[in-house]
Structure formats: C-alpha cells, structure tokens
Amino acid sequence: MLSVVMISTGEEVLYGDITDTNAAWLSAQFFEQGFAMTRRVTVGDNYEALAKEIEMCSLSADIVIVNGGLGPTSDDLTAASAAMAANVGLEQSNAWVAEMTAKYQQVGRVMPAANLKQAMLPEGAELIDNPVGTACGFMMQLNRAWLFFTPGVPSEFKIMVSEQILPRLKTMFTVSDSKVCHRLYTYGLSESGISDLFQALTLPETCSLGYRSSLPFIEIKLFAPQNDTQVPILLAQMAELLGDNVVGEGEGLLNAIADLLADDATLALSEQSSGGFAINWLQDVPSLSARLAVSEVMADDIDDNACAAEFSTLIALRGQRLHLHAPATYTLTTGPSSTEGGFMLGLTTPDGCWCQQLIFKRQYSNYNRRWIISTVMFDMLRRYLQGKEIFGCYESLDRVASEHL
After folding, report:
1. How far apart (Å, rounded) are the C-alpha atoms in residues 344 and 390?
2. Burial of 300 from C-beta contacts in 10 A (0-12 / 13-18 / 19+)
C-alpha cells in the first residue's frame, strides 16, 4: 500500500485561526482515486521545523503533499525549507517570473518586487503551473518520496491537485484499489442509533462505511470499488434500514427538495423562531432559491401560552397575507419560541395545512437552534413531496402537539 502524507503549513492553521479545509478535501479526493492518506501533520511558520518534517516524511512516505507557505511574504518559508531538506540551494525560475509579470500586466499593474520570491525554487525542482494565482507549485524527489508543493489558497490548491498532481500520480503509480464514495444524508438519528440499525447489514470485504456528523445532519458514506454492481443493492438496504430519516441520497436536504419540486412550484417563507436562517440557507442552493416567491422575518416573541391549535390559525393568516404579495405553492412557517426550548412549525400545501409544536431535549447554541428549526421545517416539505408522514421522529426533539387541517 502506498504511503501518502500531507503537511499543512502556517501558524493560522496550527493554532486554529482558520479551518484546514484543504486537508479534508484532499483526503476525500485522494481516497476516491486510490491514494488513501496515511498521515497528516501541521507545522507552523518555522523554517527548520518544516525542513525537518519534510525530510522525515521523505524517508517513510511514497507521496508527500506540502500545502501552503509559497507566498511573497517573510512568513512564507516552504520553498526555502524544501531546499534545506534536500541540501540544495534556491534558483530563480525565469519562466515563472515571466508568467507572473504577464498576470499583472493583464490587470494593468506592475508586479511588485516581493513577488520574485515566489519564483525561487529548490534546485532541480519541476515547476507546477498555477493558472489562477501567482504562487507556482513544484515537485521534487527526495529519498523514497515524491514531494508536491502547493499554495494554501483553496481555489488554487484544488485546481492544481485536480488538473496536474493527480494526473501525474496516476502515471507514476499503479493503483488498483480506487473507490467511489456513495453518500446518504440523514437527520433525526444519532450515530449510535444508525450503528445499531446497521447491525443487520452485511458488507462485502471490498466495501466499507464511514460517518460524518455535522450538526444537524449525519452523512453516511459507502466506499466501494468503481462500477461495483453490489452498490445499488447495498444503498437500497441502507435506505430501508434508515427509513424516512434519509433526507437526501447523494445530495443534501435542500438539493433533494429542489429535485422533488414540480417545475412550476414556488415557496413562501415566514420566519420567527428561526430568525431568517432558513431564507439565508436557501440562497446556498440557487435552484431552490429561484423558487422563493416571497419571504418575511419577524421578531421572535417568546410565547409560553401558544398551542398548536392557535398556531394553525396563525399559519393560515400568514399564508393568506403572503399570498396577497406573491402566490406560492407551499408556505413554510416558523412560529414563536417558548422559554422551555419549544418552537412551532407549519407547512401549508394545496392539500391542507400541517403544524407541530416541538421542544429541544438538550441545550443548543442560538445558531444551532435556528439551524435545527429550519431543518425540521424543510424536512416537513421533503416528507410531503415524498408522500411520507409529515411529522417525523427526531431523537433530539420531543413533539408536544400536532395538527392537520
């Protein structure tokens, strides 16, 4: 098995000022292509420490990806550290100087002298083009490893990996165990609950399961060889075990709703306890945000005396008011909160109106509360569109009351 290591650089990554999304993305991409990552390490902006880590990794790994530290400032030390690890000097790449000069000319600017630092590469290194930025990458062989150096900017890093590094690796190494990741997105179940359900599932030796919990969803990943004929059967078995808590197959909840809606269907949103979270979330899915006919956000007035029956009347009134502004096929509503952690939701459709009152079983931050409330509201629509029971079962919530008009 190939040994693949990633070194992330920078104080901002080491101390958590920014999330290392590059590492997570690379791990997933490499796994699916048969280059499963065996180790990840983060090093701060320390010239000697980075050089030592590069040298150590080159002695034990086949492939090393070094991310970050290729900029023009004094804390960008990766090229110099790589040269130190290989016991060579730095040399200027005139080809990259010309490339950077042309990039600045295209935007009507003169290249700052500081950018010349980005063209200084370890002697003997092979330049890797960066089509969208001024920091070129490079590759070199050291001890048993091939090392690839990439900029830290995610857009630059990803295009370099996808278009240049992976194609190179596929010609350099023979890989026979590349896999495809198939995803099911769930809401309302815990990881332990899902694990118990899957006790009845028998996986072939060539397949494996992974879980990713990111509130409020749990993503279940089935890793299988490409073109594996057992995959559709396994996914169907998994979906059956998970029941109506599967909110999307191969896509998230909102994308699944967008696919389920009829071409002429539109949405209206009236938010109170969710504080505008649902409307903002909707904007992340253009195919769904384009269906939004009208929306409103109202102050979340705490109401401990409200009940589902009263709220159903409120839903009807809100729907009528919004309908006057812009008629919509479906109206989704979040009502007032209660001091005990309760909230109300409503869904109005051509077939009637559903409303429910739920209460949190444990404490959440205000942000996560609004995300969960919005999730359950959208899940009501998803369930309606799939012909399922509108009022779902959620392990973290208790239902106080519900009504269908």
Report:
1. 14
2. middle
Quick one: pLDDT at residue 180? 84
Specify whether the CB–CB gap between 337 and 343 falls below 8 A. yes
CATH code (residue 393) = 3.90.950.20
CA 239 – CA 223 distance, rounded (Å) = 15
Identify the pLDDT of residue 308: 57
Segment 72-100, tens digit of pLDDT: 999 899 999 999 999 999 999 999 999 99
- Domain check: are 36 and 126 in the same one? yes
> Rounded to two decimals, what is the model's pTM?
0.74
Residue type, 50: L
Are the C-beta atoms of 81 and 54 separated by less than 8 Å? yes
Q: Which two tokens stand for residue 285?
A: 């899915």
Range of the domain at 120: 4-172
* Statement to judge: residues 215 and 346 lie in one domain: no
Start-to-end CA distance of the chain, whole Å, equals 61
